[in-house]
Amino acid sequence: MHRENSIPRARHPGAPPQRFGWRTDAAIVTSIVLATLTIVLVVDVASLPWWVSGTFGYPLGNPFCHEQVCGDYTDSAPLRNVFPPTFNLVLIALALSVFELVFLISSMLGTGRRLWIIVTGAVGSIALLVAPIYFYFAMPRGFPGGPGPGWFRAFAVVAFFVAATLVAFFAARHLKPIGSVPVSPS
C-alpha cells in the first residue's frame, strides 16, 4: 500500500513495516543458508582423508578418521611439511567463511560493509583452492597411495564458496538498513 507521494504505510497500526519484497527476502534467506552451508562444507573437507594409501587414510586435521584406519604422519618429516600447512590453509578458508556470514548479517542490520562479503569470500575461496594444489605438489613423490576424498571435494567446495559469496554480495546490495525505510504513522 503506497500513497501517491510513495511513502510506504504500515498495513494496520500494530503491524511492523515491510522492509523488503518477497524476492529480496528469498535472496536473503538463500544467501544465509548458502553461507552457512559453506562453513559446514569446509569443515567436512578438513575432516575427510586427503591421502589414501591402502587401508590408511590421512586426514588433514589428525585425528579425524572416517571408516578407515588412520595413518599417522607425525613420524614422517616429509609428511609433517605437507599436512599442517595444508590444514592451515583450510582453516583460513573456514575462518573467512565465518567472517563472510558475519558481514552478511551485519549488512542486514546496517552496521556492516557489503564489500567485506566479497573480500572475505574471494580470499577464502583462493585459500581453499591453494590448499589442494599445494598439497598435491608438496606431497613426496613415490609415497604410496593417492589423493583422497577430502582432496577431491575441496575443488567442489571452492566452486560452492564462490557461488555463495556472489549470492550473498548481490543479495546484500539490495538491503536497506533497519530503520532507514520511512513509514507513515497512520
What labels describe this entry?
186 residues, alpha+beta, Butyryl-CoA Dehydrogenase, subunit A, domain 3, 57% helix, 7% strand
Characterize the structure shown.
The chain is an alpha+beta fold. The protein has a single domain (22-173), classed as Butyryl-CoA Dehydrogenase, subunit A, domain 3 (Up-down Bundle), CATH 1.20.140. Helix content is 57%, strand content 7%. The chain has helices at 22-47, 77-80, 83-109, 115-138, 149-173; strands at 49-53, 56-59, 69-70, 146-147. The chain has a 4-stranded mixed sheet with strand order 3-2-1-4. A hairpin with a 2-residue loop joins β1 and β2 (56-59). α1 runs antiparallel to α3 (83-109), α3 (83-109) packs antiparallel against α4 and α4 runs antiparallel to α5 (149-173). The longest helix has 27 residues, at 83-109. It starts with 21 loop residues before the first helix and ends in a 13-residue tail after the last helix.
Q: Briefly, what is this?
A:
This protein is α+β, with helices and mostly antiparallel strands. It has helices spanning 22-47, 77-80, 83-109, 115-138, 149-173, and strands spanning 49-53, 56-59, 69-70, 146-147. Helix 1 (22-47) runs antiparallel to helix 3, helix 1 runs antiparallel to helix 5 and helix 3 packs parallel to helix 5 (149-173).
Please render the helix and strand layout as text.
Layout: H1 22-47, E1 49-53, E2 56-59, E3 69-70, H2 77-80, H3 83-109, H4 115-138, E4 146-147, H5 149-173
Parallel strand pairs: 2-3
Antiparallel strand pairs: 1-2, 1-4
